[in-house]
Specification:
The complex is a heterodimer of chains A (205) and B (426). In chain A, 64% of the residues lie in helices and 1% in strands. Chain A is mainly alpha-helical. Chain A starts with 22 loop residues before the first helix and ends with a helix. Chain B contains 4 helices and 28 strands. In chain B, strands 2-3-4-5-6-15 form a 6-stranded antiparallel sheet. In chain B, strands 20-21-22-26-25 form a 5-stranded antiparallel sheet. Classes of the chains: A mainly alpha (205), B mainly beta (426). Chains A and B meet through α1, α2, α3, β1 and α4 of A and α1, β1 and β10 of B.
C-alpha cells in the first residue's frame, strides 16, 4: 500500500522504495489543499494534456497555454473533479476541451495576451519544433479536423474530442460522460464519418 | 489525400514548456483566494457533470512560423478580447496633453496640434504610443518615453488591399499602422526573431508599444484564427529625438555595473536604459538573486536565467493589479511590490514546489526606512532597501496556503514608527 505524508510545506511524498502515490491518493491530498500533490499530478499528466491540447487547437503555442490553464482551472475546481478508473487524466482532458471550446466561441484566446510582447525568455514562437510543425501538412490537416469538430453536434463533439483526438478508451469516455459504451461507439462512428466528410469537402472547396 | 483523422503522433513534452507551465501553475496556486473546498469524488462509472470552463489564459491560437495561409479553415474574425485595452492600458479617443505637446514640438511639418484628433493611446512600461488624425493629411503615430519622442509622417489609412499595413516602427520596438475595415483583431510576429504582439485595434488603426524586435526579416500578420499574411513595405524605424534629457544612471558602482550589464543584455530592455539608477540587490535564490533598478515610477528587476544569462523585467504599478496579477503582490501608499517565485525543485513524488519567493518593490514615501515581512511560523524577513527600491525574500511559498495566513508587510520609518501595514494576499 502506498503511504503518503504531509510535511510543513505540504509535500506529498512516498517513502524510499515505495511506488509513487496513485492519482486517487494524490486526489485525496489535493482535496486537503496539498500543493505538492497537485504538482505531482501535473508532472504525471502534463505531457498527455499538452499533446491533447495540441490536437484540440492545432497550435503548440495554444497547447502550452492550455496546459497551464487546464491545471490551474483543475486546481480551482478540485472539489468538482472526478477520477475515472483511478485516473485524473480523463477529467483533465474534459477541462482542457472545455477551455479550448470556450476559447473558440468567445474569442478570448488572447486574454493573457501578454499585454506586452513575449520575450526571448518566455516565448513559444521560437520553439524549433513549432517552426517545423507550422510548415507541416500534418498541422494543416489537423486544423481542418479541429474546425470540423466544432461543427459537430455536442454529443458527437464530446466523444470526438475524447476518443478521436484524445484517444481515450471507449470505456473511460463512457464513464466520464455517464452513458453506455455502445452509445459512445455509435457516436464515435458517426463523428468519424462526419469529420471525414467535412474535412474532405472543406479541403476540396 | 491522406486520412485527416491520422493525427501526428504525440511528442515528448519539452522541458522548457514544462518549466514555464510549472511556473504559471505555481504562481496561480499561490493565490490564497479560491473557491470553497468541496470533497473530491471518485467514480467508476456514473453520471457526472463536466467541469465548466474557467478563465482562459492562452496566447494566439495560430502557431508561429512561416507565412502560409489556410483559406479552407479560415473562420470569421473573432471579437476583440474584452480586456485587450486593459492589458495594453489603452484608451480610445484620448492622448495625454503633455504627449500632444511633446509630439508637436518635434514634428515640425505637421499641421498645428489644435487640429489633431487623438484616436487611441496605449501606455506600457513608460512608453506611450498614440495615433492622431490630422484630417486631410491622414494619420500619424507618436511614441514618447520619459526622455524621447519618435513621430511618423502622416499617411492616409490605406492598407493597399492587405489586411493590415505597418506605418510606424520605433527603435523601442513600438509598432503601429492601419487595418482594413472589418479587421478587429491582429497578431504580429517576426519569423526571424522571438517576438509576437497583439496590438490594440481601434477603427482603422492598430498599435502596440515597445518590445517588438527582429523585424529585419519581415513581419507576419495573423488575422482571425489562422490567416497569415506577410507585411509589405516596412518603414524604417523612426529615429527618436531626445527632448527631455535626463542624467545618466550610475554605472561605476558594483550595483551600477550589474544593472548596466543587465540593461545591455536586452533585447526587450527598458525605456531610456542609460537613465536607470541602481537600486537594492539581494543574493537570493539559487541563480544569483535580484538587482533592482529604478526610473521614475518604473521598477526594473534584473535576474538570471538558469543558463546564467541576465534578463531585465520592467514592472509598473499597473502590472500588480491587472487581470493576471496575483493577490500576493503588495500595493500600498508607501510601497508597492511584485512577487516572484523561484528555486523550483522536484519533490520525491514528481511534483514541483518553489522553495523561495522574492518581493521586488518600489518605495513611494521618503519616510520609509525598514520593511519587514512577518509570517506565522517563519522568522521575520527584513528587506534590503536602497535608492527607493527594496528586495524582500522568504522561503517556501507554495507548500501550503497557510504560509501566508496572517502574513503582513510592515513599513516603518527611521524611528520605528509604523508607516503602513500591508496584509499579504488580501
Amino acid at each position: 500500500m502506498t503511504s503518503t505524508r504531509s510535511t510543513t510545506t505540504g509535500v506529498a511524498a512516498s517513502r524510499p522504495g515505495e511506488p509513487p502515490p496513485s492519482d486517487a491518493t494524490l486526489w485525496r491530498l489535493i482535496g486537503d489543499d496539498d500543493h505538492a500533490a497537485f504538482t505531482a499530478l501535473f508532472e504525471r499528466h502534463a505531457e498527455r494534456v499538452w499533446n491533447y491540447a495540441y490536437r484540440l487547437t492545432a497550435s503548440w503555442s495554444t497547447a502550452e497555454d492550455l496546459l497551464s490553464a487546464t491545471f490551474l482551472a483543475a486546481w480551482r475546481k478540485r472539489g468538482d473533479g472526478v477520477l475515472v478508473r483511478e485516473s485524473a487524466l480523463p477529467w483533465l482532458c474534459t477541462v482542457a476541451a472545455n477551455l479550448a471550446r470556450t476559447e473558440w466561441r468567445a474569442g478570448r484566446r488572447r486574454r493573457r495576451v501578454l499585454a506586452r510582447l513575449t520575450s526571448a525568455a518566455d516565448t513559444t514562437v521560437t520553439d524549433h519544433a513549432e517552426d517545423l510543425a507550422a510548415r507541416s501538412e500534418a498541422r494543416d490537416r489537423l486544423r481542418l479536423v479541429v474546425a470540423a469538430v466544432e461543427r459537430l453536434p455536442r454529443s458527437e463533439r464530446e466523444v470526438a474530442q475524447l476518443c478521436l483526438l484524445g484517444e481515450m478508451p471507449v470505456a473511460d469516455a463512457a464513464a466520464l460522460l455517464g452513458i453506455a459504451e455502445a452509445s459512445v461507439r455509435s457516436r464515435v462512428s458517426r463523428a468519424r464519418t462526419k469529420l471525414r466528410d467535412l474535412t474532405t469537402r472543406t479541403h476540396d472547396e | 489525400m491522406s486520412d485527416p483523422l491520422d493525427f501526428p503522433p504525440p511528442r515528448p513534452l519539452p522541458e522548457t514548456v514544462r518549466d514555464r507551465a510549472r511556473r504559471r501553475l505555481s504562481e496561480g496556486m499561490a493565490d490564497p483566494h479560491r473557491p470553497t473546498r468541496r470533497a473530491p469524488v471518485v467514480i467508476a462509472a456514473a453520471v457526472v457533470l463536466l467541469a465548466g470552463a474557467g478563465a482562459v489564459v492562452t496566447r494566439d491560437a495560430a502557431g508561429g512560423g512561416a507565412a502560409a495561409t489556410a483559406p479552407a479553415t479560415s473562420s470569421p474574425v473573432p471579437a476583440p478580447p474584452p480586456d485587450l485595452h486593459d492589458q495594453l492600458h489603452a484608451r480610445d479617443g484620448w492622448a495625454p496633453p503633455d504627449v500632444v505637446d511633446r509630439c508637436a514640438a518635434v514634428a515640425g511639418d505637421l499641421p498645428p496640434k489644435e487640429g489633431w484628433t487623438p484616436l487611441v493611446t496605449s501606455v506600457v512600461h513608460g512608453t506611450t504610443l498614440s495615433a492622431f488624425s490630422t484630417g486631410p493629411d491622414g494619420v500619424f503615430f507618436c511614441e514618447t518615453t520619459p526622455a524621447s519622442v519618435s513621430v511618423s509622417r502622416p499617411a492616409a489609412p490605406d492598407t493597399g488591399g492587405a489586411p493590415a499595413s505597418i506605418r510606424f516602427l520605433s527603435s523601442r520596438g513600438s509598432v503601429a499602422g492601419f487595418v482594413r475595415p472589418g479587421v478587429e483583431q491582429l497578431r504580429l510576429h517576426a519569423p526571424g526573431a522571438t517576438t509576437a504582439a497583439f496590438p490594440v485595434v481601434t477603427g482603422d488603426v492598430f498599435l502596440t508599444p515597445e518590445g517588438f524586435r527582429g523585424v529585419e526579416d519581415g513581419v507576419v500578420f495573423t488575422v482571425g484564427r489562422d490567416q497569415e499574411f506577410p507585411a509589405r513595405d516596412l518603414p524604417r524605424p523612426s529615429e527618436p529625438t531626445v527632448d527631455r534629457p535626463r542624467p545618466g544612471g550610475d554605472r561605476a558602482s558594483e550595483a551600477g555595473r550589474r544593472l548596466g550589464a543587465c540593461l545591455d543584455a536586452g533585447p526587450d530592455g527598458a525605456p531610456d536604459p542609460a537613465n536607470w539608477t541602481p537600486g537594492a540587490h539581494a543574493g537570493v535564490g539559487a541563480h544569483g538573486g535580484f538587482q533592482l533598478g529604478r526610473y521614475g515610477d518604473l521598477l526594473g528587476a534584473c535576474a538570471t536565467r538558469e543558463d546564467g544569462s541576465p534578463f531585465f523585467d520592467v514592472i509598473d504599478l499597473a502590472d500588480l493589479t491587472g487581470t493576471n496579477a496575483t493577490d500576493l503582490n503588495l500595493v500600498g501608499r508607501s510601497v508597492w511590490a511584485a512577487v516572484r517565485l523561484h528555486d523550483f525543485r522536484s519533490t520525491p513524488t514528481g511534483g514541483t514546489v518553489a522553495d523561495a519567493f522574492t518581493y521586488a518593490g518600489l518605495v513611494l514615501d521618503d519616510r520609509v526606512a525598514t520593511i519587514t515581512l512577518t509570517r506565522a511560523g517563519f522568522p521575520d524577513a527584513v528587506a534590503v532597501v536602497e535608492n527607493g527600491t527594496f528586495v524582500l525574500g522568504g522561503p517556501a511559498t507554495t507548500g501550503s496556503p497557510s504560509d501566508f495566513d496572517g502574513a503582513a508587510v510592515v513599513v516603518r520609518d527611521a524611528a520605528g514608527a509604523v508607516v503602513e501595514e500591508l496584509p499579504v494576499g488580501r
